[in-house]
């Protein structure tokens, strides 16, 4: 199987990013405010939401702390988005 180019999005990362963006929007937080709350740069938050990067477990924990949700909520939302596309 051919490797994906560095700038080519992986569907799973896109869905994870969409789940994070939906959670942030429901809490009416800007990327900047979420970044401050999570200890992440706002550009990094944006890259996650666009599915451009594969966040580590530690980053996902920071993100969910900033969103004030359990990690399981982010994963549940990700799974829901993934099922919608099948």
Overview of this protein structure:
The protein is mostly helical. The chain has a single domain (11-84), classed as Orthogonal Bundle (434 Repressor (Amino-terminal Domain)), CATH 1.10.260.40. 66% of the residues lie in helices and 0% in strands. The protein has five helices and no strands. The longest helix is centred in the N-terminal third of the chain and has 16 residues, at 11-26. The protein is globular and about 35 Å long. It starts with 10 loop residues before the first helix and ends with a helix. The mean pLDDT is 92.
Largest beta-sheet details: none
Give the beta-strand count: 0
Distance between the termini: 21 Å
CATH homologous superfamily name? lambda repressor-like DNA-binding domains
Taking all Cα atoms into account, the compactness measure Rg is 13 Å
Nearest-integer average pLDDT: 92
| Assembly level | single chain
**Class in CATH?**
Mainly Alpha
Query: Count of DSSP helices?
Result: 5
* Poorly predicted parts: none
| CATH architecture term | Orthogonal Bundle
Reading the helices and strands in chain order gives HHHHH
Bin the helical content: 55-70%
The rough form would be described as globular
Overall number of domains: 1
Provide the structure class: mainly alpha
The proportion of strand residues reads under 5%
Q: What is the CATH third-level topology name?
A: 434 Repressor (Amino-terminal Domain)
